[in-house]
Every structure is written in structure tokens, then in C-alpha cells.
Amino acid sequence: MTEMQMLTIAASLVAAMFGVLATVLGWIGSRLHTKVDDMGKTLHSIAEGLHEKFNGLDKRVTVVETMMRDNDRPEFSRHP
Predict the structure, then answer these.
(1) Counting beta carbons within 10 angstroms of the beta carbon of residue 26, is it exposed (0 to 12), middle (13 to 18) or buried (19 or more)?
(2) pTM score of the predicted model
(3) Mean pLDDT score of the chain, rounded to an integer?
């Protein structure tokens, strides 16, 4: 084999390996992107659930605060 033929084969191998590397990295990136999207959806649903729970807690605290305020003011007290 001449030096020119070996150089051509080596360049072809480098190009092929670069193509394989790019394909593998693209495949990994695609899978990672899918996983991140799934995690984002899961986190969004968790955030919605927490928001609803916080709203419910806020309503209950408001009721308790109102009752405490009414008990502190004798003119609005339920007990004579």
C-alpha cells in the first residue's frame, strides 16, 4: 500500500468515527430532552397540587383569624 492510499483510508475512518460519534451524541441528546420534558410535566403537576393545597390552607387560616378577631371584640362575640 502506498502512503496516499493509507492516508485516504485513515481519513475515511476518521470521518466515519466522527459520524458515529455525532449520531450517538444526537441520540443521547434526544433521550435526555425527552426525560427533561417528562420531568417538567411532572413538576408542573406537583406545583398545581401544591398551589391548590396552599389555597385551601389560606382559606382555613382566614376562617381561624376571623374567629379569633371576633372573639377579641366583645360586641361581635358569640358568647354573652
Answers:
(1) exposed
(2) 0.54
(3) 89
